[in-house]
Amino acid sequence: MSDFFQHFGQTVAFIAITAVVIGSALAATFAKSIVHASFALFFTLLGMAGYYFLLGADFLGITQVIIYVGGILVLLLFGVLLTSRSLDQLQIRSRASYIAASAVGLAVLAMLWKAIIRGPWQHVTPVVPQQTTQSLGRLLLTDYLLAFEFSSVTLLAALIGAAYIVRRREK
Amino acid sequence: MQTVWPLFVYLAAAAAVPAGMIMVSFVLGARHSDRATGEPYESGIVSTGSARLRFPIHFYLVAMFFVIFDLEAVFLFAWAVAVRELGWAGFAEALVFIGVLVAALAYLWRLGALDWGPKPFARLSHSRHKDS
Amino acid sequence: MQEFVHFLQHDVLARISPPLGALPDQIVLLGAILVGAAPIVAFMAVIAMAWTYGERRIAGFIQARYGPNRVGPEGVLQPLADGIKLLAKEDIAPAGADRPLYELAPLLVFVGALLPFVALPFSEKWVISSMAAGVFYVLAFEAIEVIGIIMAGWAPNSKWSLYGGMRLAAQMVAYEIPMGLCLLTVVALAGTLNLGQICQMQGGAFGVGNWMVWPWVSPFATLAFFMFFVGGLAATKRAPFDLPEAESELVAGFHTEYSGIRFAFFFMAEYAAMYVVCAVATVCFLGGWHGPFREWLAPAAGAPTISDLLGKAVQVKTADGAWFVWANLWGALSVLGKWAFWKPMLYELLGAFYLIAKSFFLLFVMVWMRWTLPRIRIDQVIYMCLKVLLPFSLLCVLGAAAQTVFTDWNLLHWLLSAGK
Question: Which residue in chain B is spatially nearest to A60 when comparing CA positions?
Answer without folding.
Answer: B74
